[in-house]
Amino acid sequence: MLEKMTGAIRLARILIKFSRMTKIYSLITLILLLCNNAWAQFAKYSNEFLNIGAGARGMSMGNAQVASVTDGTAGYWNPAGLVNVKDYPQLNLMHSEYFAGIGKYDYANLVLPLKDNKRTLGLTLLRFAVDDIPNTVFLVQPDGSIDFSNITTFSSADYAFIFSLAQQAKWSKNKNISFGLNAKIIHRQAGDFARAWGFGFDAGMMVTGNRWKIGVVAKDVTTTFNAWSYNIDEQMREVFYVTQNDIPSKSTELTAPQLILGGSYNFKINKKISLLAEADFDITFDGRRNTVISFDPVSIDPKVGLELSYNSVFFVRAGINNFQKALDDKDTTNQKKIWIYQPSIGAGFKIGDVQIDYAFTNLANQSNPLYTHVFSLKVDLRDLKKKKKK
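The structure corresponding to this sequence follows.
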């Protein structure tokens, strides 16, 4: 417990330094209290649907985005990056399917620059769902017979509504610094049987130089909670009792704070070709995980992404993340472990105010062929701005 408390204090110290720049002392005080009082209640891998990614660009770069993101998807990766959307609104859409179309993941984002161009507002909606799940609770009758007409279907869906606000400040002549804050509402449901509502905050910072950028994101800084409630009727309770299944009751699930550090550099090859490279470090505080660096309660997962750009019109991308140790399938003794990882590639092109991006990525790792196609669309709404001026 002492080690866990020490980890909480270390996290609080980092956030206090951040708070001095943004002057949000009361928020940091709340973080410290929650970390000290609720550390033992954290659920590992809570709200994992929020870690899949957003936008084909970021997902094709191995989710290494906290430093280089400059479009509306910053509302997901690093809210401080929203200040790069200026002058006119921007719309971002994405759709992908997993497990041969069983799981569907959708993302929508609208960015609204404010009048002074130093502040930006972002609205984001995420949905990950598995539809048409067979409900076989009443398939077997009390006399042992099977009645297929009792099979119904339901959906298991996770939603996140994210409200973002970013502000830019001048640091020095050649460097800019920006801050961002996310307020997120989470709704999860499994048919009519179970549902949860949750709430949490993210905070981000981005420092921009001539060719380099540094990004910092503190996710779930006040801890994000999900309050679960269940609607189990007497008939279903009886089936659970007979089949020796636990009858669920109201519960609260807490998500531990998470820190992401990243840096990027843009190499100018010639006037038209450039290569952007980014490396991120995802730091979790909910206990030992199967990552490159892991000790109780801290785990560190690195991510690397590359983007080759031609005239800022055509893009080719690649990335690697999610490094883990697993048993070697070729080892018959089941003793040898090897490093596995999650690769991704992609491409994109921009025509006028429209950009289309594609990612070919893996939900698991290179040893498990669960690849999926991700498409996303970005539209700069210049015409909408012109109409407002008229």
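The mean pLDDT is 81.
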